[in-house]
């Protein structure tokens, strides 16, 4: 018999759907190769996918070795990669919609599990009611012995099923609550500010890659030539454009949060040394105002620093003196 013909596989990537592979079939040998290359199977999609590839550019460092491994296993592989990206606003809107859908589905599942738990408990109570009254012991050798033992087994079994159903209902409710809070967590003011700082750091790091030195064993470190810098800038231009779009979007989100009072806007422009700030529910005296952080006094010989966006409230030194004076007057009176 001739060698089994392998199917043609197609690796597809879009910014919206991520990286998927089409043409696989159960038992064709592709699963072992894809698992080795860190792909995962999705029951919802009915396809293998690259983890964390949705809303991102193609992961060529994953795709290239996957193609080589599949071809080595006898498959013919074609590639369809769409390098275009969606705007950060579109990505966030899609994530919000998916999170809402997931929360609704898990909430419905929690309701079903709760109903199952109630039904299991009712079944257990019904089985208990069928036991002899007053905890009557089994009459060994009596004609009722078999019936009595079966009734006890049913009550014990339904108790176990009731406990399992209740635990499943509690787990479903826990997951539903987590899913319901997903959008709020992603748009938490502190999280948004941290995300902006990370994106800005990524942008600076990518800018440095354009001008960073090159290294060779013969000549050591050397400045990149203008031609090399131009080639790097061209290769990184799409990535920088995507980062800047994300920064612009999240800065607009933060600006809206500040305008609506959801987020604070403290910094050197409105806080001075000697003032008091509230961080994570505790008030501290300001020791120093930095560009991105505020240093506060502690009971020790050093100060603690925290980002400005984590400051929850503020009192000027004059307000502190006024509060101390009122407290002293109240104690005298």
Tell me about this structure:
This is DUF3560 domain-containing protein. It holds the Pfam family DUF3560. The chain is α+β, with helices and mostly antiparallel strands and 333 residues long. The protein folds into four domains: 77 residues, Alpha-Beta Plaits (2-Layer Sandwich), CATH 3.30.70; 94 residues; 74 residues; 57 residues, no CATH class. 53% of the residues lie in helices and 17% in strands. The strands form three sheets. Strands 3-4-2-1-5 form a five-stranded mixed sheet, with helices on one face. Helix 3 runs antiparallel to helix 4. The radius of gyration is 32 Å and the shape is flat. The termini are far apart.
Kindly summarize this structure in a few lines.
The protein has 8 helices and 12 strands. By secondary structure, it is α+β, with helices and mostly antiparallel strands.
Terminal residue distance: 106 Å
User: Based on DSSP secondary structure assignment, what is the total number of beta strands?
Assistant: 12
What quaternary form is this? single chain
Strand order of the largest sheet: 3-4-2-1-5
H-E string: EEHEEHEHHHHEEHEEEEEH
Integer count of domains: 4
Q: What is the rounded Rg? A: 32 Å
Number of helices: 8
Protein structure class:
alpha+beta
Pfam families: DUF3560
InterPro entries: DUF3560 (IPR021944)
Organism: Pseudoclavibacter terrae
Protein name: DUF3560 domain-containing protein
């Amino acid at each position: 018999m001739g060698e089994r013909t392998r199917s043609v596989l197609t690796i597809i990537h879009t910014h919206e759907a991520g990286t998927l592979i089409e043409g696989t079939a159960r038992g064709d040998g592709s699963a072992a190769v894809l698992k080795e290359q860190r792909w995962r199977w999705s029951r919802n999609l009915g396809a293998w996918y690259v983890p964390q590839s949705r809303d991102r550019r193609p992961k060529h460092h994953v795709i290239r070795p996957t193609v080589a491994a599949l071809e080595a296993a006898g498959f013919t592989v074609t590639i369809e990669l769409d390098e275009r990206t969606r705007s950060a606003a579109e990505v966030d809107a899609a994530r919000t919609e998916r999170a809402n859908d997931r929360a609704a589905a898990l909430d419905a599942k929690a309701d079903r599990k709760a109903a199952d738990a109630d039904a299991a408990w009712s079944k257990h109570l019904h089985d208990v009611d069928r036991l002899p009254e007053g905890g009557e012991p089994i009459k060994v050798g009596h004609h009722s012995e078999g019936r009595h033992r079966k009734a006890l087994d049913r009550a014990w079994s339904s108790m176990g099923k009731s406990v399992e159903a209740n635990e499943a209902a509690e787990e479903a409710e826990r997951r539903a609550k987590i899913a319901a809070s997903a959008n709020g967590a992603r748009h938490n003011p502190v999280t948004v500010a941290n995300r902006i700082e990370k994106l800005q750091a990524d942008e600076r790091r990518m800018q440095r890659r354009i001008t960073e030195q090159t290294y060779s064993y013969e000549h050591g470190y050397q400045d990149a030539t203008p031609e090399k810098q131009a080639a790097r800038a061209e290769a990184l231009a799409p990535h920088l454009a995507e980062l800047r779009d994300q920064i612009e979007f999240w800065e607009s989100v933060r600006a809206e949060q500040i305008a609506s009072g959801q987020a604070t806007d403290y910094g050197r422009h409105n806080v001075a040394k000697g003032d008091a700030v509230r961080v994570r529910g505790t008030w501290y005296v300001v020791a120093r105002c930095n560009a991105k952080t505020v240093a506060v006094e502690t009971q020790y010989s050093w100060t603690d620093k925290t980002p400005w966006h984590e400051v929850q409230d503020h009192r000027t030194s004059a307000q502190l003196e006024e509060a101390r004076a009122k407290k002293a007057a109240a104690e005298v009176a």
